[in-house]
Design a protein that fits this description.
Elements lengths: L16 E5 L2 H4 L12 H5 L18 H14 L4 E5 L2 H4 L9 H16 L3 E7 L5 H5 L7 H17 L5 E6 L1 H10 L10 H26 L5 E7 L4 E2 L4 H24 L4 H9 L10 H5 L5 E5 L5 E3 L17 E3 L14 H15 L3 E5 L17 H19 L4 E7 L18 E4 L4 E4 L1 H14 L2
The structure holds ligand GBH.
Length: about 450
């Protein structure tokens, strides 16, 4: 094929961590197997209009049944790490109470399969599949959900902690809170700003409580504990004071609202003020902020895009209908992926340098990748040159950040294979491996071959 030759990436060390990532609901299918109960995504997928094409994760990539072959596929890509998530409704079907041994057994086998092939398991405890019973009780806006999450984390660690050293508590709490409870684009599809902000606090609290339980359970065992956030670089569109304020406000809602409490143990004052202006206060109790600021070994960064921010609406006004300052996203004017997201690799360099400066944690890129309209060739290969370019540009952006002093230790491609892309269903393909949903056949795309070659070249230099 005409795929570009892979070269070693300058600026990345030979022991840089390379991986591929997935999540439970997006690939597993088998939603009724072995005692699993419905999650909020099983329910949400049945709401008319919620998911494109009315699709759902009932079958997805059938990974639950094809796991050993999929692990062989991962091994073939030459990565050293596989990031996956545990389905809470498999492990603790009622969201509380004892562990479900049959559900745990799947992850037990997955971990053993990975270790047998020398692949490090990197476990995410929560990638959005909340047991429906917990949502019925109030979901993340309810404080009790944080306590339930900590209990679930302890059960998972008790079963897998003897072999799994890398644990991520939450994937992208911004998405869980904002898309799940404010815009309603994601499960559970609620639309209430105050609830969404309470969800933020209880997600962070759940992270802190779970961290404490994992540290206690680990004792002297090595444990690498972290959280993964979806982050972008927020720059002002122009140099007006309104644009600077808009970028700061976007950064406050998207970045500092999470990282300030996690790292510094306090919510940012300016964000609390803007919440107060909308009639919302965080439900903070004594001791919460100390709990949330539990030590982190690594910060997981999911990066897809960045945009600019303007403080002026299209009609020239600087306040919205509620009298609050305008914060309007503005495009860079770059090419976009099939998601409509602009391709802004230098935003990743800027982001990593900023994270280093303000938060000082080691980072790993736990997700980066793109959906494009893949067109399989007659010979069955998938010449996804646009995805190769996307990955190449972003890996080099990571290397540049490292050369300039950011302590970034790894990069995981999103995603191992095409999968259930949430509200977009199966139409959007992020995989470096193609999945034919009629036959469940996997085909390594040219990007997958290129990624394997790039890893080999960079390691071997
Ligand atoms: C991740 O979320 C998820 O963890 C993963 O499950 C999912 O499959 C993957 O990404 C792909 O969607 O307005 O142009 O600046 C992604 C979270 C938040 C990333 C919104 C893109 C907006 C892009 N997304 N963001 S833009």
């Amino acid at each position: 094929t005409g795929r570009p030759a892979a070269e070693a990436v300058d600026g990345l060390p030979t022991d840089f961590r390379w991986g591929v990532a997935t999540s439970s609901y997006q690939i597993e299918g088998a939603t009724e197997a072995d005692g699993r109960t419905p999650s909020i995504w099983d329910t949400f997928c049945r709401v008319p209009g919620a998911v494109e094409g009315g699709e759902n994760g009932d079958v997805a990539c059938d990974h639950y049944r094809r796991m050993p072959q999929d692990v062989a596929l991962i091994a073939g890509l030459g990565v050293d790490t596989y990031r996956f998530s545990l389905a809470w409704p498999r492990i603790q079907p009622h969201g509380s109470g004892p562990a479900n041994a049959r559900g745990l057994a799947f992850y037990d086998r997955l971990v053993d399969e990975l270790l047998a092939r020398d692949i490090t398991p990197w476990v995410t405890l929560y990638h959005w599949d909340l047991p429906q019973e917990l949502e019925d009780a109030g979901g993340w806006p309810l404080r009790d959900t944080a306590e339930r999450f900590a209990d679930y984390a302890a059960l998972a660690y008790a079963a897998l902690g003897d072999r799994v050293r890398h644990w991520t508590t939450l994937n992208e709490p911004w998405c869980s809170a904002w898309l799940g409870y404010h815009t309603g684009e994601h499960a559970p599809g609620r639309r209430n700003f105050g609830d969404a902000m309470h969800a933020v606090h209880h997600l962070l609290l759940g992270h802190g409580l779970a961290s404490r339980r994992l540290r206690e359970a680990a004792g002297n065992r090595p444990l690498e504990l972290g959280i993964t956030l979806n982050l972008g670089h927020h720059a002002p569109a122009g140099d007006s004071a309104a644009d600077v304020a808009a970028a700061r406000a976007a950064d406050g809602m998207g970045t500092r609202l999470y990282l300030d409490p996690l790292v510094h143990g306090r919510y940012p004052e300016d964000v609390l003020e803007s919440l107060a202006a909308r009639g919302v206060t965080m439900p903070v109790r004594d001791g919460d902020m100390e709990t949330i600021a539990a030590p982190l070994d690594v910060l997981g960064v999911n990066y897809y895009s960045s945009h600019l921010h303007s403080g002026t609406a299209e009609d020239g006004s600087t306040t919205d209908a509620e009298g609050l300052p305008v914060v309007r996203g503005v495009a860079h004017g770059r090419p976009r992926t099939a998601m409509g997201w602009e391709i802004v690799p230098e935003g990743l360099t800027e982001l990593l340098l900023r994270l280093q400066r303000d938060y000082g944690l080691p980072t790993v890129i736990t997700e980066n990748g793109a959906a494009f309209e893949d067109r399989p060739a007659a010979d069955g290969s998938v010449p996804d040159l646009d995805r190769i370019a996307y990955l190449d540009d972003h890996i080099r952006a990571v290397a540049r950040a490292r050369q300039r002093g950011a302590d970034v230790r790894g990069y995981f491609a999103w995603s191992l294979m095409d999968n259930f892309e949430w509200a977009y269903g199966y139409a959007k393909r992020f995989g470096i491996v193609r999945v034919d949903y009629d036959t469940q056949r996997r085909t390594v795309k040219d990007s997958g071959r290129w990624y394997a070659d790039t890893i080999r070249a960079t390691r071997g230099r």
